[in-house]
């Protein structure tokens, strides 16, 4: 019988939200200068594939969060954008991001975090995430792929939400690298696919590991 390894109803959850191509590339989806490391040619691929159905599901998920947990690169992008976009169509999300606590994963104990409500984490990540679960209902990790690799390697998440685009990008940083902790995930809800072929998959972590056999 599958055992859900996510936290109890009385505890908060850590949710990872990623855009990915069909072949698992999650590098630099949002802009042409977001992440071109390693010679990546397709930074901005999500912005280059606009589709109507994604926005409503993202907005619905964002309305539930009461804290952000971000890698340093994503934090810098967000901090340079959202404080200045609190009006118009994006205003609600901008106001929300400005208001909620923001935890920033960094090995640099001396980093300057000027966005109000920002706190560095990374000294003892497991203990710090346990404290986040005790303090918040939903902590969302958005983008932050390098940091996500750490969370996947250490099993420090409760839900993995993947927006899968019908694109093949070839080379690029993948959602899962070779250090991901072997695990059996549980599909939490039926997949949602919009008119552009983008499919939302929501998985919960369990305490099961893959078993092997022979057919």
From TrEMBL:
Transmembrane segments: none annotated. It comes from Microbacterium saperdae. It holds the Pfam family RibD_C. One of its GO terms (biological process) is riboflavin biosynthetic process. This is Dihydrofolate reductase. One of its GO terms (molecular function) is 5-amino-6-(5-phosphoribosylamino)uracil reductase activity. InterPro entries: DHFR-like_dom_sf, RibDG_C. Residues 14-187 form the Bacterial bifunctional deaminase-reductase C-terminal domain.
């Amino acid at each position: 019988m599958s055992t859900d390894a996510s936290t109890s109803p009385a505890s908060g959850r850590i949710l990872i939200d990623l855009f990915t191509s069909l072949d698992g590339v999650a590098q630099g989806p949002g802009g042409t200068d977001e992440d071109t490391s390693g010679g990546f040619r397709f930074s901005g691929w999500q912005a280059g594939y606009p589709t109507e159905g994604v926005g409503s599901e993202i907005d619905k998920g964002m309305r539930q969060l009461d804290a952000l947990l971000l890698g340093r690169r994503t934090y810098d992008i967000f901090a340079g954008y959202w404080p200045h976009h609190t009006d118009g169509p994006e205003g609600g999300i901008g106001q929300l991001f400005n208001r909620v606590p923001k935890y920033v994963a960094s090995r640099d104990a001396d980093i300057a975090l000027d966005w109000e409500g920002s706190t560095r984490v990374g000294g003892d990540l497991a203990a710090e995430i346990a404290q986040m679960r005790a303090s918040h209902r939903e902590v969302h990790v958005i983008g932050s792929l390098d940091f996500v690799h750490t969370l996947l390697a250490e099993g420090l998440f409760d839900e993995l939400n993947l927006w899968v685009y019908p694109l093949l990008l070839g080379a690029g940083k993948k959602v899962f690298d070779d250090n991901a902790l072997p695990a059996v995930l549980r599909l939490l809800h039926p997949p949602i696919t919009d008119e552009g072929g983008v499919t939302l998959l929501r998985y919960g972590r369990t305490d099961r590991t893959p078993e092997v056999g022979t057919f």
